[in-house]
Amino acid sequence: MAQSTASLTAFWLFICLFPSSILAQTPDSDGLIRIPIRRMKSIREKLIAQGLSRQQVHDRLEKMRTPTPKDRLAVDAALSANISVENLAKLFDLAYYGDLAIGTPPQQFKVLFDTGSSDFWVPSQKCVAAGSTECFSHSRYDSRLSSTFRANNTPIAIRYVKGNTTGFLSQDTVILAGLKVKQQFFVESTKFADGVLDSDFDGIMGMAYTNLAVSKATTVFENMALQKLVPHSVFSFFLTA
Predict the structure, then answer these.
(1) How do the pLDDT tens digits run along the chain, 241 residues long?
(2) Which helix (H) or strand (E) segment is 65 a member of?
(3) Burial of 144 (0-12, 13-18, 19+ CB in 10 A)
(4) Which residues of 226-235 are buried (b: 16+ CB within 10 A; e: fewer)?
(5) Among candidate residues 205, 229, 230, the one with its CA nearest the CA of residue 215
(6) To the nearest 10°, the Cα dihedral for 26, 27, 28, 30?
């Protein structure tokens, strides 16, 4: 993949702002593997469905969007280092996810395919014991149910605008579009940044470069290439009206 991280990020935002149909599933006659990307309710739509007024929705999203003092310091540091900073105004209207499974037998999850990050995380069954009520309404990975699970337990903290999503590394088989990625590292998340689970998706699968991962774990797509599950190290998104 020759694109820079910046262009990959913009590409993902473009995907989310327009109706989208596929990423990659079993090979068709053209040799492509396709993964359906499905629409879910955005955070904005979920707040409206809860009966909040237009003003209440606006106030809630503004509160979630408002930078913390730590965020402002990070932005100032970036600007002083001549790094460009782009504010994202459509953050709470993202509404597309894909399906994958982890473990043997498979445990199903809905994830965002995020080309702006490289870490892969889903809620852990252990989030309940950690007191994270946000995970109750989401699918949770239970290592006790998987015969291909391998423990690692390295603690991980992934920083988002409103705090950290924390957990620990584990290894298991990941099934995406019928392709089995063996011994894939991922983060079992036990605590979550504010608002990160307000939408319908369960977790995030980073599609950017491995060297950008907080966990330093090889990404799912890179492992697909290393394990010869795809003929070329190339993926794309297909947009439809």
Answers:
(1) 333 333 333 333 333 333 333 344 445 656 677 766 766 666 677 677 778 787 877 776 666 656 667 666 666 665 676 554 434 444 455 567 788 999 999 999 988 888 888 999 999 999 877 677 778 888 999 999 999 999 999 999 998 766 688 999 999 999 988 889 999 999 999 988 766 666 778 999 999 999 999 999 999 999 999 999 888 888 877 655 4
(2) helix 54-65
(3) exposed
(4) eeebbeeeeb
(5) 205
(6) 160
Tokens read off for 201: 């998706």
Q: How far apart are CA 109 and CA 201, in angstroms?
A: 8
Find out whether 191 and 167 touch, Cβ atoms under 8 Å.
yes
Assigned token pair, 79: 């600007």
Rg (CA), the chain: 18
